[in-house]
Structure prediction request, 105 residues.
Amino acid sequence: MITDEERSSRLAHLEELIELIRPAVQADGGDLVLLSADVDTGVIEVQLQGSCSSCAISSTTLQAGVQRILQERLDWVTEVLGSIDEDIDWETSAAMGQGGYTPRW
Prediction:
């Protein structure tokens, strides 16, 4: 069982790390949003938004990027669940920017 102080500390460190990662995702027209964090079990849920919804490597960004970084830097993180905001249509998404490996239309 962790203390309330430890919970607050874990959440603060997680939020700081998300803010460090976001500029890299935003540089390609996307964004990274923290949806939920269970600091007791270590389960984190994030969502990629913006141009990430049309990006061919968004699942790689979630797994090899976001998940890897969070688990390497926060030893209490056990699982990172990720989704892509699919509310945006692909044309709007593509107009926001493209990652280095995104196919061109």
The first helix runs from residue 4 to 26.
